[in-house]
Structure formats: C-alpha cells, structure tokens
Amino acid sequence: MVVFAGGIRLAGDTLWASYISDYIGAVVVGVAFRYFTSVRRGRLRMWDALVTVCKADLLAVTAFEIALFVWLAFSHHVIAPEPPLNPTTPAFWFFIQIGLASGFVAAWPATSWLVRRGIKVMPWPAPDGDKLRRRSQPQS
C-alpha cells in the first residue's frame, strides 16, 4: 500500500519496489513474532534467540513470499496487464487471496522440514499434549 500510494518505482514498475518492501516487512514481522514467543519460553539472551528465530523462520517466509510474488507477477503481467491492478479494486484483493493460498502451499514443505529437523518448534504446547504423553508412557 505504501509503495502504491507513494508511487515508488524500480525498473519502471511498482511491482519490484512492492516485492522488496513486502519481503522485508514479512521477515521483520515473522522474526519479531517468533522472538517474543521464544523469550516467553525462557530464552533470555537476545542474540541467541534472534539467531534461532532467523534459522527457524527465514526459509519458510522466503518460500511463502517467492510463491506469492510469482503469482502476483503472473497476474500482473499475464492475466491483467492493462489496466494494471491496484489496491483500490476488488480484483486486486481477489488475486492477493490466490497468492496467499499459493504461498501457504509453498511454505508447507519448508516448515515441515524445519519441524522434523527440530529447528522450528511450536511456540506453545498443544492442548492436551501432556495427557497424550502420559497415556503413551508405560505404567509402573
């Protein structure tokens, strides 16, 4: 929205400026969210928490954003090149929703891989997780 309202252009197109600002914003928000939830879990050293958070979220956020940007570029240059879509039209927001869904699908394998490797963990325990663990342990 800021890029659109400000008319910022790179290589004659607002799309590239939007991609850069959106990616930086997504990384900052993702890292901040994970950082504050990891501090709640007891990581008190800021640098260690930030490094862990960056390792855990950078791959998933990048996969999400690449899929979103590919879809947006396709919709911008192929589906609706003239007149270009802008945030004041419903069609723009419809294409954004498709892009968000494609980003979700693209980030799923990266997130699953990070969880399996133990790099990314859930920020809070699942409800009833303790009950399930107690049932699976042998009774003495």
TrEMBL record:
Ranges of residues in domain DUF4396: 4-120
Keyword Cytoplasm annotated: no
Keywords: Membrane, Transmembrane, Transmembrane helix
InterPro entries from the UniProt entry: DUF4396
Keyword Protease: no
Segments crossing the lipid bilayer: 16-37, 58-79, 91-115
Name used for this protein in its record: DUF4396 domain-containing protein
